[in-house]
Structures are given as structure tokens and as C-alpha cells.
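Case study 2.
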Amino acid sequence: MADTFRQGAGRLCLDFTRTLRNRGTDHSVDELTDGPALSAWVGQCGPVAPVPGSVVPEAIVRDAQQLREAVYALVEAARTDGGPVAAGEAPRERVNLAAMRTVPVPALGEQGELRWYANDPVTGTLALIARDALDLVTSPAVARIRTCADPACNALFLDLSRPGRRRWCSMDSCGNRAKKQRRRT
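Prediction:
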């Protein structure tokens, strides 16, 4: 299966916020519309894939969508002088509650490979996302979070470049599109 979801934001929680594409525009698209979509995202981006054919209840899908928006609110608030608490109580509580869930656990396999296990890969991955968000918004790395310069994208990413002046969430998509646009004008 080819990768369907965008990755490469530098943190799992930021990749998760990208599942609402074109955020803040009239053309926003929610990629987590149902159980199969959420299961596919976890299978592609999480450490352990759900069992094929498993059903993700609609309540978990809604919870995932709400967690995504709470993570986004915390990250955006953390980038301001008010810090992550400026996001308010509701986003903070949603992320805190998700972080309390059981996460996938690593184990060393018989061949020396790293294997991951989870009773519920979907809620376990959501817990990892929440924990990653809490770590990110309380760390110095928050100063390196950027918004893609493509106004049609607006995705968040962690700028790990040495000078800290990266503009695009991905040079392959948004950066190249901007270069082509400049050549046309």
C-alpha cells in the first residue's frame, strides 16, 4: 500500500494535525472521516498497525478528531507569549486525558528487531500523539515550530534545519509548487 497520509513534520503530533489538510482555508479536507481512515492513518504512521478488518467505532473517530484539534490549539498557543496554557482548559484536558491511556510497548524480537505491541493500536497511538504533544509544547523545540509558507497548506512542522529558516513543510510539494509559481510570474 502506498503512503496516503502526509508525514515528515518532525513530530508524530504534528503529522497528526496534518490530517486536516488546507487548515484555515475554504478548501480544508478532513482525512479522518471514518474508522477505516483512522485505522489507515494509524497503520501508516503509528508504531503498530491495527488488525486487518478491525472496526474503529465512530466514538473513537470523533475522539481522534477532537484530539487533533486540541493538539493543534495547544501547539499554536505554545508558540505565543502565553504558552500552551493560553489554549484554555478544554484542549489541555482533552490532551491530558488521551495521554493517560495505555501506549504501545516496544520489545526486542527474536532476530534482534524492534517490535511494537498494543491491545488497541488506535487508542494506543492516540495516547502516543497526546504524550508527544505535551512533550513538544513544554520543550525548547516549540520555538522551532513553523507554519508552511504556502497559504493553501498552512501545515505545522518542526524546523530542524541548522539555520532555522525553513519555509515549507515539504520541499517536494509546497516548496516546488512555490518555485513553479515564481517562474510563471
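The chain has a mean pLDDT of 89.
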